[in-house]
Design goal:
It is a single chain. Helices cover 32% and strands 26% of the residues. The chain is built from eleven helices and 19 strands. The protein has two domains: 81 residues, SH3 type barrels, CATH 2.30.30; 262 residues, DD-peptidase/beta-lactamase superfamily (Beta-lactamase), CATH 3.40.710.10. By secondary structure, it is α+β, with helices and mostly antiparallel strands. This is Serine hydrolase.
């Protein structure tokens, strides 16, 4: 009986091995095999993707190098063409490479269309490049759609602070009331704070202005708003009134700092029914333009990399400034404001002036690569003749 069972086990194992071998042979027989019929050089020609379909392979087509959908705004330069045979069919393929030559290989010509790729930003959900001189957009992406803007909101707050200071040196030295238990608690919060408010200590308008601009301190921004208008609620009403006076139809504020009400309620500073400030990229750019026009000192103040304020280091997270990772001398960036909350994502308002060009203001909202995409956006803006000084 045992020997019979063993016999059947051996037969079953042989069947499985035979079946497995058959499957293996079948896969090998049906595997894609491309052979080269002819190859010729061609004049270097620019192409870009026709749609999201298609991929770049090695010439034997047994290794994928890149999918076109992951390179939505790339220009591919073709230098060779070949006729490749696959089974009974033949097709014309181009040997292409991106500008840097870091990605190259063969692709069926039908996946491409002649000409350089139109400019675009891959990550920013909303963006704009504005000519500061004319106030006209030179490039935009969903720029009229309002969305949360995090600490970029402080540009409006700082405008109203500078409006009240009105160049008066003595006003800068006025002491701001920072005794609120909510603001003191916020200043100690690792996620919502920034510049520490010490109980029984006094801070001037200038100190809180630097903390709000450079360190993006939320408690400093709220305290300044209360100093300007008398209360947090009145200041937010003033923010909205200012937006209305500028005809910003896609701007609505509920926060002086840019924090959402879902965070502010823990400190007693929630206001209104909406959760967040909702502003379009275009309206953010217009706020920045008004700020620079009326109070150009914001460029000098905003270009400071770091500053010790009342014994605390205020670090400017604008990494496009001189000496920082994303600095480019040709772009000459001298401002303006970063922002982040999980809801708003990474946001950045940049500005600079290239030699012989008008000043540019750029806005990218909810952009995980806010600095590299701002670099690209500024370069694109300067490529338009309308930006010439």
């Amino acid at each position: 009986m045992k020997s019979g069972k063993a016999k059947w086990l051996v037969l079953a194992l042989m069947f499985v091995l035979t079946l497995g071998a058959g499957l293996s042979l079948q896969v090998t027989a049906d595997a894609a095999v491309y052979s080269t019929v002819s190859t010729a050089t061609m004049t270097k020609t620019a192409y870009h993707k026709k749609s999201t379909a298609g991929a770049i392979y090695n010439q034997a087509h047994n290794r994928k190098i890149a999918s076109l959908k992951t390179y939505p705004n790339t220009t591919w330069y073709a230098t060779q063409k070949a006729t490749l045979k696959h089974g009974n069919s033949k097709g014309i393929y181009y040997y292409v490479a991106n500008k840097s030559g870091s990605v190259k290989g063969w692709i069926w010509h039908g996946y491409l269309t002649k000409g350089k790729a139109p400019f675009g930003l891959k990550y920013a959900k909303n963006a704009i490049a504005m000519d500061y001189t004319t106030g006209k957009a030179v490039w935009s992406k969903s720029a009229n759609t309002a969305r949360p803007i995090a600490s970029v909101s402080k540009l409006m707050t700082l405008y109203l602070v500078l409006q009240k200071v009105d160049g008066n040196a003595s006003t800068w030295n006025q002491v701001v009331d920072t005794s609120s238990k909510g603001l003191i608690a916020m200043s100690k919060s690792s996620s919502c704070g920034g510049f520490l408010f010490q109980t029984g200590h006094s801070y001037t308008v200038r100190e809180l202005y630097d903390a709000a601009l450079l360190d993006s301190s939320n408690n400093a921004a709220i305290a300044l708003g209360e100093w300007v208008a008398g209360s947090n609620a009145k200041f937010i009403q003033q923010m909205n009134a200012q937006a209305k006076s500028w005809n910003l139809g896609k701007a609505s504020f509920v926060s002086a700092s840019g924090l959402e009400n879902s965070d502010l309620k823990a400190f007693g500073y929630a206001y209104g029914t909406a959760n967040a400030n909702m502003v379009s990229a275009k309206d953010v750019a217009l706020i920045a333009r008004h700020l620079i026009q009326d109070y150009p000192q914001i460029l000098t103040d905003g270009a400071v990399g770091s500053k010790t304020v009342d014994g605390q280091l205020c670090y400017n997270y604008n990494n496009m400034l001189s000496g920082r990772k994303y600095y480019k001398a040709s772009l000459n960036v001298d401002g303006l404001k970063t922002g982040y909350t999980p809801l708003a994502g990474y946001c950045f308002v940049g500005t600079g002036q290239q030699a012989g060009k008008h000043r540019v203001i750029t806005v990218v909202l909810h952009d995980i690569n806010e600095f590299t995409e701002t670099q690209s956006l500024m370069k694109q803006a300067y490529s338009y003749s309308s930006m010439n000084a």
